[in-house]
Amino acid sequence: MPSLGALLISGSMMLPTQALPDLQHTEWRLQSPAQPAPQPTLSISDSRISGFAGCNRFTLGIDEEGRHQVSTTRMACALEAMAREQALLKLLGAPFRLLPSSDGRYLTLAAGKTVYRFAKADAAQAALVSPQAAWRPRAGEQYWYATRGDCADGVCLRLRGNEGEPWRDYHGEIAGFTPEAGRSYYLKLQGEPERGGGTALQLVKVIYQETVTSVVD
Asked: Cβ distance 55 to 85 under 8 Å?
């Protein structure tokens, strides 16, 4: 049986989503090496690894010859961000060791002298917040997943901080942003305090967007 302390992920082995069932349906955010926001993420679910590499989204799989295959979207970002992203994708495409911490709070990916440490997203607390509960955005720079969806009183914008959180209904507007039906977005926003005590959201940048496809049995 594979050890929960360390697993070598090579071209001749299964992905860690299959070998380490305790990692199923978990979300992780990069802790080190330190990087400016938005930090890369890992999402482990249904025997696959996907996530955000710093500019593009990625999916990690195994090809017919048993080698790692990393598929990504094709957005262009600043040169520094692209260089950081390529370093992470290089690690994901090579044999690496997967090292869950004993308390389950951290996940380390290591290949030779290259080490990336991820912290587990705290979805437990987020799950206690009802998607229909009243919610207000905060001031300052922030990053949100966004989509149009069915809310308690019709169609509205829905936001969440990471892929492990429930969607939160947002009945306000994001200045400069008009979502399209059937698409999901990852946004960089700026929250500006209003006189009445609320916070107005302003679009800074659409980091990426993708088509949402319904799965029918």
From this structure: yes
* Stated pTM of the model: 0.57
> In terms of Cα–Cα distance, which of 166, 179, 169, 173 is closest to 135?
169
Question: In this predicted structure, what is the pLDDT of residue 202?
Answer: 94
Nearest C-alpha neighbor of 168 from the set 177, 159, 178, 176: 159
Instruction: Give 138's pLDDT tier (boundaries 50, 70, 90).
Output: confident
Phi, psi of 19 (to 5 degrees): -80, -25
Question: Which residue reads 């969806």 in tokens?
Answer: 149
Cα 189 from Cα 181, distance rounded (Å): 20
Comparing 203 with 63, the larger pLDDT belongs to: 203
Nearest-CA neighbor of 93 among 15, 26, 7, 32? 15
For 21, counting Cβ atoms within 10 Å of its Cβ (0-12 exposed, 13-18 middle, 19+ buried), the class is exposed
Which run of H or E residues covers position 207? strand 199-211
